[in-house]
Amino acid sequence: MNKRENLLKLRDQAQLGGGIERIASQHKKGKLTARERIHFLMDEGSFEEIGAFVQHRSSDFGMENQKFLGDGVVTGYGTINGRLTYVFSQDFTIFGGSLSETHAEKICKLMDLAMKNGAPIIGLNDSGGARIQEGVVSLGGYADIFYRNTLASGVIPQLSAIMGPCAGGAVYSPAITDYIFMVENSSYMFVTGPNVVKTVTHEEVSSEDLGGASVHSTKSGVAHFTGANEIETIQQLKKILSYVPQNCEEKVPMIPFEIGDEMRPKLIDIIPESANQPYDIREVIDEVADENTFFEVHKNYAENIVVGFARLAGKSIGIVANQPAFLAGVLDIHSSQKAARFVRFCDCFNIPLLVFEDVPGFLPGTDQEWNAIITNGAKLLYAFCEATVPRITVITRKAYGGAYDVMNSKHIGADMNFAWPTAEIAVMGAKGAAEIIFKRQIDASENKEIVLKAKEQEYADLFANPYRAAERGFIDEVILPEETRKKLIKAFAMLENKVAVLPKKKHGNIPL
Ligand code: HXC
Asked: Which of 200, 348, 384, 404 could link 154 by a cystine bridge, Cβ 3.0 to 4.6 Å?
């Protein structure tokens, strides 16, 4: 065999990973191989592999006789919708995609390239965790990755798709990245698996119930997106990248858009007659954003707040919206955490923020207090205060109490605040307020109900409207619902070149 033929043979060998049988076994589980996943992710023919011939250096347990080209991870770069992207894809057919010293080195090399060249990195995770035969060397490899994940945070977008097992400390690399995507019924993440759980806590639980896509997208909030299968999950990875810039120095992607009339009469009747009746804030979002562009993050987690990306006149924005259709849109621990993380992501990557506000306040109760709603609510407050991207709020209905301040009020740095005529901006709802401030008069009266009703009305007349706030300039303009989209397009264009600089510091100390 001449040298040329030898190279071609090695290339073919590398393509086969752990061999035909293991590839068949992967397919039998309904899973794609590492290379097939890359094929579906990257633009046709754009992928260039790096390190296809890397092999492990281990010699314990007879490992010197078990070597596979690539060592369990395919790494390289290519384009997604024409934009440079780095990807590593763990190959379960080689030692179960487990992470060896050299496997880690390949990932680190890629991360370093992504950082130097300012482009997103995607990890397709499918791994049995640390390469057991290598011991601490493998643990060190993980830590090298965690360290780079952290340094890259806020510099380049980092996405993690979980396409199979992801257990032990291995979960912490995805956890540090910006978004986690999971495949339903074929992926799981946990720090300790069902066997350890059984030994320590005597709980019997399946992998799926402990750390499957459903659990992490609804209960824990660890996963931001789930796909019904691998292809759907890969489509989501591509989609999110279309909304974000390549790195923190770039402006958001923009697709050409011709501005027309932009009035949205459907919004006129969206707020129900009674202030206690719910409506779906997604209907407002869909009307205001460019058609079919809203891409929701954390859709099934903490549903009392809705967050996601959209386009407004072709330009990416991030939307945070109280959801009156779920728990009346109240702010609680999970919704505060969810929104805070999203606000910080948008701010890292220059994505302007649009807030829709209809919030009755923070959720009362021992559960919330004992689990630190104070610290967790402060996360959202801090995240908004710190954000320097263009920020606009539209108050559609309730803006009560501390939640008024927290939800991107002017006082904490929002640039433009609009309110609909239906807005109610006060310390609390009229009934609660009347009960407190007129307690004596009510108690002393013969007909308590009538006095309470009258006092409630008095309070509502004074505060259940946007005009007291507008008098002060806390609201820049009271607008008709149908004008919202038009006003927002103009206001965001006006804020296009906003510059806001935070005081010099090493970094802030967000309440964690
Ligand atoms: C080396 C491994 C491996 C590992 C799997 N393999 N995990 N080799 N190190 N961690 C190998 C198997 O020996 C097998 O090799 C092949 O991969 C496929 O594994 P199977 O068990 O046949 O596959 P499956 O039945 O699908 O089960 C997958 C699995 C199971 C659930 C992931 O393999 C498993 O439980 N692995 C061990 C998980 C684990 O405890 N890892 C360490 C976690 S601690 P052959 O040659 O037969 O094909 C950790 C710490 C990280 O990761 C800390 C970071 C700070």
From this structure: 348
Residue 89 has pLDDT above 90, yes or no: yes
Dihedral angle sign, alpha carbons of residues 208, 212, 217, 221: positive
What is the average per-residue pLDDT within 225-238? 98
CA angle 33, 35, 41 (to 5 degrees): 105
Atom 36 in ligand 1: residue holding the nearest Cα: 128
C-alpha distances out from residue 376 to 174, 187, 247, 331, 473, Å: 22, 29, 28, 10, 29
The CATH class of the 3-241 domain is: alpha beta
Q: Where exactly are the structural domains of the chain? A: 3-241, 265-429+464-494
Which one-letter DSSP state was computed for residue 212? B
Active site residue ranges: 168-169, 402-403
Is the distance from CB of 67 to CB of 55 less than 8 angstroms?
Answer: yes
Ligand 1: centre distance to CA 187 (Å)? 14
pLDDT band at 1 (very low <50, low <70, confident <90, very high): confident
Q: For the residues 11-38, what does the mean pLDDT come to?
A: 97
pLDDT of 169:
84
Distance 131 CA to ligand 1 centre (A): 8
> Is the CB of 211 within 6 Å of ligand 1?
no
Residue 121: predicted pLDDT: 98
The residue whose CA is least distant from atom 45 of ligand 1 is: 95
**Does domain 265-429+464-494 correspond to CATH entry 3.40.50.2020?**
no
Give the tens place of pLDDT for each residue, 451-494. Answer: 999 999 999 898 889 999 999 999 999 999 999 999 999 999 99
pLDDT confidence of residue 429? 83
pTM score of the predicted model: 0.96
Query: Relative to the CA of 22, which ligand 1 atom is closest?
Result: 48
What three-state secondary structure class fits 234? Answer: helix
Separation of CA 495 and ligand 1 centre (Å):
52
Q: Do domains 3-241 and 265-429+464-494 have the same CATH topology?
A: yes
Residue nearest ligand 1's atom 35 by CA: 128
H or E segment to which residue 285 belongs: helix 281-288
**352 pLDDT higher than 90:** yes
Protein residue whose Cα sits closest to atom 25 of ligand 1 = 96
